[in-house]
Amino acid sequence: MLTTFNEVDMSNIQEMRTRHKDAFLKKHNLKLGFMSAFVEAFAFALQEQPVVNAVIDDTTK
């Protein structure tokens, strides 16, 4: 199993969430979390670098 950790500057996303969370809650009756930003980033990464959509499958054991 491979585990990696990367530090990411989330200050822009935190600021965006703080700015829009009340209006988002009022309009959609849902809390605005961070998952939407993560999904957007993943979708962009997959379009730009399709190799990111890879799997390590060690079935030799």
From TrEMBL:
It catalyses: N(6)-[(R)-dihydrolipoyl]-L-lysyl-[protein] + succinyl-CoA = N(6)-[(R)-S(8)-succinyldihydrolipoyl]-L-lysyl-[protein] + CoA. It is found in: Mitochondrion matrix. Its main location: mitochondrion. Its EC number is 2.3.1.61. The keyword Endoplasmic reticulum does not apply. GO terms for molecular function: dihydrolipoyllysine-residue succinyltransferase activity. It holds the Pfam family 2-oxoacid_dh. Keywords: Acyltransferase, Lipoyl, Transferase, Tricarboxylic acid cycle. One of its GO terms (biological process) is tricarboxylic acid cycle. SUPFAM superfamilies: CoA-dependent acyltransferases. InterPro entries: 2-oxoacid_dehydrogenase, 2-oxoacid_DH_actylTfrase, CAT-like_dom_sf. Pathway: Amino-acid degradation; L-lysine degradation via saccharopine pathway; glutaryl-CoA from L-lysine: step 6/6. GO terms for cellular component: mitochondrial matrix. The 2-oxoglutarate dehydrogenase complex is composed of OGDH (2-oxoglutarate dehydrogenase; E1), DLST (dihydrolipoamide succinyltransferase; E2), DLD (dihydrolipoamide dehydrogenase; E3) and the assembly factor KGD4. It contains multiple copies of the three enzymatic components (E1, E2 and E3). In the nucleus, the 2-oxoglutarate dehydrogenase complex associates with KAT2A. Interacts with ABHD11; this interaction maintains the functional lipoylation of the 2-oxoglutarate dehydrogenase complex. Dihydrolipoamide succinyltransferase (E2) component of the 2-oxoglutarate dehydrogenase complex. The 2-oxoglutarate dehydrogenase complex catalyzes the overall conversion of 2-oxoglutarate to succinyl-CoA and CO(2). The 2-oxoglutarate dehydrogenase complex is mainly active in the mitochondrion. A fraction of the 2-oxoglutarate dehydrogenase complex also localizes in the nucleus and is required for lysine succinylation of histones: associates with KAT2A on chromatin and provides succinyl-CoA to histone succinyltransferase KAT2A. Belongs to the 2-oxoacid dehydrogenase family. This is Dihydrolipoyllysine-residue succinyltransferase component of 2-oxoglutarate dehydrogenase complex, mitochondrial.
